[in-house]
Amino acid sequence: MATGESLRSLAFSFRISQGYISRIIHLVVKSLSLRLTPLLIAPPTKHNLIHIAEEFWTKWNFPNCTGAIDGKHIRIFCPGKSGSLFFNYKDFFSVVLLAIVDANCKFIFVDIGAYGKEGDSGIFTKSSLYKQIQTGEYFPRDAKLSNCEKSLPYVHVVDEAFRLETHMMRPYTRGEAKKNYKKTIFNYRLSRARRTSENAFGLLSQVFRIFYTPIALKCETIDHLVLSACCLHNLLRNRYIESTNNYYYEFDKNEAPPTKNMIPIARSGGFANYEGFLVRDEFTTFFCSTQGSVPWQDHETQKID
């Protein structure tokens, strides 16, 4: 996981056959994922979500945000007899890692193993978390915005690959943002909060070098390996925050990100609903008000000194 070495290279290094190494890897990553997941990626409670929302407002200036959702393609070798199921829009075989990330770049929910041909929105709607959201069991009750009497629901921030819903805030299109400055402000504030997910994936790939190369393992083993990496990522983030008291991500700026792995999902969102438009408009109004604006947003959106 840390080096991304091939099984053949490990076989020469440790004088063990490739078949036996693959069995060892399967047993280790399966054990890690089963034991660490309940400790490091446990399902969040409503109290946890309220705490996450407070951190997003304090650190990333987006209120009532309980996480940033994004997905990445994990490059693999073509599984046997799979046809085109794992073949994605970038013309390689992959499985999808879909994750919700908190304000400290830690994973709070992951969905691993979807076919590479699928998109973010379709994968998320099939997840158990989405079913809880639809039944109203996941999010806390609507809360008032900071320094404001207006109450809005708790939301996830997403990109254009997702549909706009009451609890899913995606950016305005470029055409809309160009015509309306308030919508430009909303897109900036949303992107600022959503980049925690990109930071998390960047940190994950730099620590675990296996994500720089195609993974030559069985699909079940790959799922356990990716889940184990996410758990260990959270463990390292906890230790980093405790020791430095700094929530900002740190990675080697001279190290280029993987160009043939961890590829973004295709931008193809689904239908939006009417309530989602209303909630997004309310956030837009709040970000442009004296209670919700930040001093630097005009400079960042218009580059005004």
TrEMBL record:
GO terms for cellular component: nucleus. The keyword Nucleotide-binding does not apply. GO terms for molecular function: hydrolase activity; metal ion binding; nuclease activity. Its cofactor is a divalent metal cation. It is found in: Nucleus. Pfam families: DDE_Tnp_4 (PF13359). Keywords: Hydrolase, Metal-binding, Nuclease, Nucleus. The keyword Ribosomal protein does not apply. Residues 69-234 form the DDE Tnp4 domain. Belongs to the HARBI1 family. PANTHER family: NUCLEASE HARBI1-LIKE PROTEIN, PTHR22930. This is DDE Tnp4 domain-containing protein. It comes from Aphis glycines (Soybean aphid).
